[in-house]
């Protein structure tokens, strides 16, 4: 795994809003379509990348193969003209028994402590992917990067990827901001948002 300063420049995008995001359903390894807002977010992220000088000739474009991420990449790529390379290692963390359920349904069947953080919530998903597995997947993606790259992925995978790219640990997962419709830029050990 390269040191943070040795990584090429990366831009990390979470997919645009989906129907299940809007309904507060856990997607994980499942999928749902982008909403109109999600498609607009994807277009805006592509425009922000183009304004930052990102072009298909100079930057790679990796995407999770899950529909919501791949559709986001395709829309954003209208501004870039890159070749999109699907990479299964960028898929979202799986949620096991919680996949497809709303937070209310989960809380009714698997109540957690009142002060539970969102990180702790994901960690206890019955039958879900382990944090160590996702951490290793993200490390493998980063170790394989050979040039500046745009990465289109998912909320939790984005958090793991960015945390690892900055040389932080699993204990630091709650440090970085999240959000949809945001382009995260990591270069020479620094983390910032575009737009």
Describe the structure in your own words.
With 195 residues, this protein is of the alpha/beta class. The chain has a single domain (4-194), classed as 3-Layer(aba) Sandwich (Rossmann fold), CATH 3.40.50. The protein is built from seven helices and six strands, in the order E-H-H-E-H-E-H-H-H-E-H-E-E. It has helices at 19-22, 36-51, 67-76, 103-109, 118-123, 131-144, 155-165, and strands at residues 10-14, 60-63, 84-86, 149-153, 183-187, 190-194. Strands 3-2-4-1-5-6 form a six-stranded mixed sheet, with helices on both faces. Helix 2 packs across helix 3 and helix 6 (131-144) packs across helix 7.
| Reported CATH architecture | 3-Layer(aba) Sandwich
Straight-line N-to-C gap: 30 Å
How many domains is the backbone divided into? 1
Task: Describe the global form.
Answer: globular
Count of DSSP strands: 6
What portion of residues is helical? 25-40%
Number of helices: 7
CATH superfamily: Phosphoglycerate mutase-like
Layout of secondary structure:
Layout: E1 10-14, H1 19-22, H2 36-51, E2 60-63, H3 67-76, E3 84-86, H4 103-109, H5 118-123, H6 131-144, E4 149-153, H7 155-165, E5 183-187, E6 190-194
Parallel strand pairs: 1-4, 2-3, 2-4
Antiparallel strand pairs: 1-5, 5-6
């Amino acid at each position: 795994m390269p040191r943070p300063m040795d990584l090429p420049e990366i831009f990390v995008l979470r997919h645009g809003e989906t129907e299940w995001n809007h309904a507060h359903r856990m997607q994980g390894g499942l999928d749902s379509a982008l909403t109109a807002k999600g498609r607009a977010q994807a277009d805006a992220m592509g425009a922000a990348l183009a304004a930052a000088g990102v072009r298909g000739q100079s930057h790679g474009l990796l995407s999770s193969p899950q529909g919501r991420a791949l559709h986001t990449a395709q829309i954003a790529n209208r501004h870039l003209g890159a070749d999109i390379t699907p990479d299964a290692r960028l898929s979202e963390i799986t949620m096991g028994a919680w996949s497809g359920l709303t937070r209310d349904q989960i809380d009714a069947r698997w109540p957690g402590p009142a002060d539970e953080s969102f990180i702790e919530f994901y960690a206890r998903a019955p039958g879900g992917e382990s944090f160590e597995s996702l951490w290793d997947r993200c490390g493998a993606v980063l170790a394989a990067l050979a040039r500046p790259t745009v990465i289109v992925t998912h909320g939790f995978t984005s958090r793991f990827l960015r945390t690892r790219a900055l040389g932080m640990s699993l204990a630091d997962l709650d440090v970085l901001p999240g959000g949809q419709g945001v382009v995260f830029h990591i270069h020479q050990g620094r983390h910032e948002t575009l737009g």
